[in-house]
Specification:
Elements: E1 4-7, E2 10-13, E3 18-24, E4 34-39, E5 46-51, E6 57-59, E7 67-72, E8 77-82, E9 91-97, E10 102-104, E11 107-109, E12 114-119
Parallel strand pairs: 2-12
Antiparallel strand pairs: 1-3, 3-8, 4-5, 4-9, 5-6, 7-8, 9-12, 10-11
Length: about 120
């Protein structure tokens, strides 16, 4: 069964950096466009970055120039490098297909996510 496991979050001061990783249990990820999404407390989940199977990337305006998405298809892993973090980046971060989400047994699937907290 396909799974997406996010890691790398934590507590960081404003201006700091983190690298998030998303490991997929299925090689199907290598052939799909993937995205990093985030959901702040009380807000809707939003797309912050996406990357095609060929490596082309796009970013939300709020993170452009600070975040960088990459992928290693051989490892079925997608990364999100986050620099110059701001308190407004605080959220739970998820990876998933783009457009998402992955569907398993007729249901939307999201991993557990990884919490990023940026202190001012």
């Amino acid at each position: 069964q396909a799974q997406l496991v996010e890691s790398g979050g934590g507590l960081v001061q404003a201006g700091g950096s983190l690298r998030l990783s998303c490991v997929a249990s299925t090689s199907l990820v290598s052939f799909n466009d993937m995205g990093w999404y985030r959901q702040a407390l009380g807000k809707q989940r939003e797309l912050v970055a996406r990357i095609t199977s060929g490596g082309e990337s796009n970013y939300a305006n709020s993170v452009k120039g600070r975040f960088f998405i990459s992928r290693d298809n051989a490892k079925a892993t997608v990364y999100l490098y986050m620099n110059d973090l701001k308190p407004e980046d605080t959220a739970v971060y998820y990876c998933n297909y783009f457009p998402g989400p992955l569907r398993i047994n007729g249901r939307d699937y999201w991993g557990q996510g990884t919490q990023v907290t940026v202190s001012s």
